[in-house]
Amino acid sequence: MSSLRDRLDRLRAHSASSKADESLGGAAAEAGNGVSSAGAVGSSSRSGADARGSAGPSAGRERTTKDTEDKGISGSGLHPALAALHVEEVAGEYGSFLRRRAVYPLEHRHGHYVLSELIHCARRLKPIAVRQNRKRGTPAADALPEPMDIEAQRLLFLDTETTGLGVGSGNLPFMIGFGYADGEAGTFTVEQLLIRHPGEERAMLAYLLGKFAGVTHLVTYNGRSFDWPVLTSRFVLNGWRPSGVEPGHLDFLHPSRALWKNTLPSCRLSRIEEDRLGIVRGEDVPGSLAPELYMKYLSDGDASHLRGVYIHNERDILTLASLTVHFGGVLEGRLGAEWALPEEPEELFRTAAWLADHGGEQHAERLFAALIAEGTPGGRWLLPAAARLKRLGRHDEAAGLWERAARLAESRLLPSAEAHIELSMHYEHRRREPGIALDYASRALDLLQRRTSLRQSDRMRAELDAIRHRLARLRRKIEATGRLG
Questions:
Q1: For residues 283 and 47, is the Cβ–Cβ distance under 8 A?
Q2: Which stretches are tagged as biased composition: Low complexity (predicted)?
Q3: What domains lie within the chain, and their CATH numbers?
Q4: Contact, 161 vs 174, CB < 8 A?
Q5: What is the mean pLDDT of residues 288-296?
Q6: pLDDT exceeding 70 applies to what percent of the chain?
Q7: Which of 4-8, 182-186, 221-225, 283-287 has the lowest mean pLDDT?
């Protein structure tokens, strides 16, 4: 990484110096009064467009050449690869940078979902915002105000491409992509800002600040832990200090993991796109290659290296919109109604549990009912589903799941005795049938002994001691009462 840092430092040495004593609020105001947000509208030159739906971005220009020049926007003198992507140079108070803009009609379909559904589904995302924007575990958490209702037109869909993976000062965001919906105009706009050297960073950040006006939440994928900390670090390094209330977060990495971490090979955005959102990218540049391609561009000036980075970043932003529709629809209760239920029992359970945690208990109950129906294959979901029923006081239903889990455990090489122990307690304390409780306790002991013969630990020995104590107590109870059940 030393060569990368040296190269960036040399490029920075050639850039124009700029003042660093502006406040964040002042910079945002100046940015808002600088470059017009109605510059050129570029078409998206990307492969696999048919797989993602019709009604792509507009390819026309909204302003004449003279008009864009008056606003500090120029497309002349750029590399042909950039011109083909409708990239333009934007000049403002703090210097220049490159901007690409693609405008999609809200009728555009990205995978399973149409962008127009954003307007309706965004309102359902408040439970996610509540959980993500509070400092959980702190005494003051309950005293925090509830976030305002979420409106699609006040969301900023954000994705950055950076020179590294950390959130420290050495990581430079060389491309910032963001999208926003306009219900009145019927459009979804994607803008991508690129710097040709570090000296253009300040101008790019100032323009971005102007886009935060009226934004209540940032929609990202791991943005709460990565993209936003990187950007705030760069603001500080450029002499700006945060002022006012920062946007809230709708980071879809966390709900994606909650639903799919046990059923998909990974929770990378590209995997979720293909397996759950119906999006086929076709040929694509992995995000991990973006820093290398950017450095090639810095080295030889050939902007064709960046074409795949532009397309990858644009697709990520559109996918954030699709995730917004998906999770909004789940919270609205569309699964099992308008949408098909997840096919895998583990995913069905995790979706139902996620819904219950986010205030959708009524919708979750329908999913749980489908899950525990007879004939559903057993799996690791059985024990947590039974634990939920136990917490709700539905002990007989929980016993049915424990019995299924017990049969499954007895067929495994390294079995768990949890279901047998729960059944032993259930029959001893609730059903008052100590004989059946003794039988389950004895079978639990056999399972634990089988397990400890293969692998021993202090925890296993403690479990063995506990079940032996339970067996002894049950035998004494049966001898005292003179009955088995």
A1: yes
A2: 23-59
A3: 2-332 (3.30.420.10), 372-481 (1.25.40.10)
A4: yes
A5: 93
A6: 79
A7: 4-8
7-16, 104-113, 262-271: least confidently modelled range: 7-16
